[in-house]
Amino acid sequence: MPSIKDIMETNVITLETHKTVYDAAVLMTEKKRGCLIITEGLVPVGIITERDIVRRFVYQNFLQRETKISEIMSKPLVTIDPDSSLREAARVMVKNAIRRLPVIKDNKLVGIITTSDFARHLSKKSTTEKMFEAMARYPQVSTSY
Q: End-to-end distance of the chain based on CA atoms, in angstroms?
C-alpha cells in the first residue's frame, strides 16, 4: 500500500506569520493554490485556506489590508509524517475535519496531502487493470499442443 510520500504534493507554498491576509490572498491567487502553510522562520506553525479568508476575514468585516495572517490562520497545525499510511492520513483528516494535511519530517515541511490527492490516487488504474487492458489488445492465439 502506498504511503503519504508516494502521493503528496512537494511544492508547498509558504508565507511568514508577519505577512498580511492581503499578501496571502494575492499569493494564493498567483500560485493558484487553495492554501498556504504559515511559517516562523522555517518552522511550519499554521495553515491558511481560502475558507479561512472567507469565514474569518471577509465574513467578520476585517477588511483591512494590515490584518496579519497569524490572526486568522488555523492553529495548532495538524500534520503527518511522510511514511504514514494513506489510511492514517484519512483518519487524521476526518477526525480534524480538514481537507489539507501538511507533511512534516524532522520538523521540516516536506509536502502536503489533500483530498484531491486521494481522489487522484484512487482514480488510477491498478496494475491488474492495466494488464487486462493490454491483454485485450492482442487477439487470442490458439495454443493446441
A: 40
Mean pLDDT across 102-119: 93
Domains of the chain: 4-136 (3.10.580.10)
**Alpha carbon 126 to chain centroid, angstroms:** 23
pTM, two decimals, is 0.66
Query: What's the order of all strands across the beta sheet hosting 14-16?
Result: 14-16, 35-40, 43-49
Asked if residue 102 has a cis previous peptide bond (ω within 30° of 0), the answer is no
For cell 489510511, the residue is: 87
Of the candidates 50, 54, 51, 98, the one whose C-alpha atom is nearest the C-alpha of residue 76 is 98
Q: What are the C-alpha distances in Å from 66 to residues 16, 38, 50, 57, 70? A: 14, 16, 18, 12, 11
State the cell numbers at 78. 495538524
